[in-house]
Recover the amino acids of this structure.
């Protein structure tokens, strides 16, 4: 790309690449004006570590940030380790549970490695907003509150709906947009990225920058990605997500479960398929000349290849067919010794066994899987979430959760 300190791609080409599929650009003319400055732009994306996985929904904006990087601009990734403790009210119909500092730190460590699956280390600046927010004095905080009014806050759809319904809104929730906005001041952002539910917060950042005599950032939002249910935004708390760090077979199987009406949207926002090819798929599906199942498989292969390497999608598809068409257990089931932490003497408790072998993330999730009929031992459904087994009786058996996760106990 030549000198990495200076973008060399013509402005018109950069503009076309950066606005493709975007939902909002505010103000509309500002991106061209900033690109015409001829210097690397500081492009901010703030993500709060409130859950352990980077989902395909998060990856939509992460991949747009990567596009800025590839064009010679600086990605400023804000890990919201302070704002995560406050809790983002965006899109919420009720108050969010506050997280402890320890929970947030644990999530942040897990997420940073996943961010690097999308972003390049070149032209990457990673900051934690506790750097400037944790030591704020009371007069600094009061200064932030003077930049906006309660009436302006209540213009937000989520706050307006809760206020009209008589649902509580805490003053801490009112503080969240201001704290997130101050991140833009702290890093002197030229551009801020987010989902469409973040537009209000991004615009507050513009106001705070003006108040601090900075050239205000432009706000660029990407569409929200519906989850596997096809209705609600992809969310770890709802369980309707695909994580970019999940095994290839898990990703492929989950993606095959999305409703047909989302195939084109997932192709546009979750893969690197050129726009003209996606347009052709959309026409073919509309005309009936293309089969939805074929295009869903194509989309799932592309997503898996993106995060696991070329060819991983085809391998995951083959394994998917073994499980779902031929109803066979794969030959390469991983073996796991029965972990000591799952035992109480010679007795093994089923939920703890599922967690210790990596088939569930918590005892609560394990119990839900059992109650939902999704746990099998050598093909037999287990329906008692408190079931216990003699360890010797489990050796050599295949323990399965759902249709894609297996271990052979040894």
């Amino acid at each position: 790309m030549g000198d990495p300190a200076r973008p060399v791609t013509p402005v018109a080409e950069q503009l076309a690449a950066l606005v493709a599929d975007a939902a909002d650009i505010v103000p509309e003319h500002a991106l061209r004006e900033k690109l015409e400055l001829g210097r690397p732009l500081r492009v901010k994306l703030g993500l709060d570590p409130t859950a352990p996985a980077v989902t395909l929904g998060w990856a939509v904006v992460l991949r747009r940030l990567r596009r800025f990087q590839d064009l010679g601009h600086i990605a400023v990734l804000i890990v919201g380790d302070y704002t995560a403790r406050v809790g983002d009210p965006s899109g919420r119909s009720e108050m969010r549970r506050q997280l402890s500092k320890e929970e947030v730190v644990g999530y942040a460590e897990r997420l940073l490695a996943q961010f690097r699956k999308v972003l390049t280390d070149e032209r990457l600046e990673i900051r934690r907003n506790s750097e400037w927010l944790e030591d704020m004095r009371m007069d600094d905080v009061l200064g932030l509150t003077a930049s906006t009014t309660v009436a302006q806050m209540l213009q937000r759809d989520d706050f307006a709906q809760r206020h009209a319904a008589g649902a509580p809104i805490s003053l801490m929730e009112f503080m969240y947009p201001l704290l997130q906005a101050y991140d833009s001041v702290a890093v002197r952002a030229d551009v801020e990225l987010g989902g469409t539910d973040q537009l209000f917060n991004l615009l507050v950042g513009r106001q705070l920058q003006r108040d601090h005599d900075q050239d205000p950032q432009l706000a660029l939002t990407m569409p929200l990605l519906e989850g596997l249910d096809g209705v609600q935004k992809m969310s770890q708390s709802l369980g309707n997500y695909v994580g970019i760090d999940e095994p290839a077979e898990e990703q492929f199987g989950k993606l095959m479960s999305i409703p047909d009406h989302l195939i084109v949207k997932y192709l546009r926002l979750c893969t690197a398929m050129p726009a003209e090819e996606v347009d052709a798929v959309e026409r073919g599906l509309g005309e009936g000349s293309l089969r939805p199942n074929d295009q869903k498989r194509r989309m799932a292969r592309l997503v898996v290849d993106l995060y696991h390497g070329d060819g991983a999608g085809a391998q995951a598809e083959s394994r998917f067919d073994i499980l779902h068409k031929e109803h066979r257990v794969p030959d390469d089931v991983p073996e796991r010794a029965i972990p000591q932490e799952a035992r109480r003497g010679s007795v093994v408790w089923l939920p703890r066994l599922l967690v210790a072998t990596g088939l569930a993330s918590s005892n609560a999730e394990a119990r839900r899987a059992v109650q939902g009929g999704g746990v099998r031992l050598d093909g037999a459904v287990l329906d008692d979430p408190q079931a216990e087994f003699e360890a010797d009786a489990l050796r050599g058996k295949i323990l399965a959760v759902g249709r894609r996760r297996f271990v052979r106990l040894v």
About this structure: The radius of gyration is 24 Å. The first strand starts at residue 24 and ends at 26.
